[in-house]
Amino acid sequence: MKNALVLGGLLLVAVGCAGGAGNAPPVSPAPPAAAEGADGAEPAASGVWALPVGPRDAGVSAIEAGAVRTDAWAKAVKAKGVGLAPASCAAFAKPAAPKGAGSDLSAALLEGDAEKRNALLFSIESARPELAPTLRAMRAELAPIECADAVTDPPLAAASSVAGPAGQMTIGLSLASKLARTAANAPVMKDAGDKEKVKRFIQGPLRQWMVEQASAIDGLSAPAGELSGLARGVVAVEAGMADLRLVDRIRSAPTPSSWDKELRAVYEAALDEALEPRKVRGRDAALVGLADFAAAGIVQDARIDRARALLSKLYGGRRIDALDGLLLPPEAALTVTIPEAALLLLPADAKGREPYAQLNVPAPAAVKSARARFEMGRRYWRRVDFVEAAHAAAKSPSPDARLVLALSLALAKGPNGPKEMMSATSPAAIGLTDTGALDALEREDPALAGMAAYDAAHLRSLSPPDGEAAGAYLADVAARFRKAAGLLEDAGQKKRAEERAADAEAASKAAGRAKPGDP
User: Fold this and answer.
1) Hey, which of 64, 275, 310, 350 has its CA 20 to 30 A from 9?
2) Strand pairing partners for 161?
């Protein structure tokens, strides 16, 4: 047992050497306060269908992206331990001019091949110097994240400062690109059967790698404090994922195969305690970044998906993707494939038209639509999104909007933001038990009854009480899933409902057998 604690202590020292727990993650100021009942409308219904008064959107105000000197960036990018960019990145740094390339920005942005799109944008950038900073930032945003700095770094190295959303984004994407190449390839020990070999490996190659990677992550994330809006967000998300990757890699460090179950459990507990500060730092940085993405109104982005997946892996008891399991009717496909973050870099034209209006491309569903606002809430757990989704859905004649309304009413009473959800004192504190509207919809609409029953059971399964009440509560959740299985028509959904019912029944029986004082 002592040896296990020694190994855990070595890892604590290794991570602590880089100041991981002491350096705070990039901090985002609080978003503009949401106004209660901003549109002045009173709730239009009563009982379980009563609309929440607030918080409502206070209106979107442009974030001022002032001038930022490149000094901090120049210092940060000298960090050791950053992985090399793939050879394929060279094509994004110096694209070959395509034959017959025109100046149609719409056509360039809609090009599906990443390298061809980059070359087309580079051609327009060369022909229109007044748009060069914007198009350069767009090229970096649309390139694979590990290649973004191949686009941004040459002009940054020649500049003393940058300004505006595009200028700040070049710094943000440069830092994010390098952060994406940290904590990736930990040293591997093939033979973990000998205790002394394991100790030497942890004290030597693994410790050296951990210190180097932690220092690189700290250094690369530091300049984000000078950035604002989405530029800060892309750094914070990648910094958070880098820290969480580091934790994940260290957890995978070898242990002697001769250890028994008890010894391994002691070691793993010591290791988790040692890594907790770094894990919390990574979580908080990622959540800061997600808040910046949410404030920008971005519904879909690959970085959001990757960050949520990693957070869910390392915080399995507080999964940020828990709402992905809800059943809803199929969502209408977006009519445009241009990433939203890239379009946000494009300023309004001389006539004041926003990007979708000035480009010859169809716009996606309006962000203020009920389903789009609900999807934002599902990704970001923001209460304001569920409140706005409820108000929008209440005005829609669509039958599907009724399910969005019922779900939004339940979730508007839950946690406000992923950090509040993930740091709740217990599952019961999440408070997702007010499913009255979903229960009413199950009774009132046969076409939506199965989904409504399943979703009510799913939400309630996320908030079981502690102690003696858990058994009966989970038995009710199981019964709800069983009922949903009988109402659903889709074979896959029916099977999933039956599986969830069995899991809830097993959990109910286990809770009934638990003795007072058990963990």
Assistant:
1) 310
2) 69
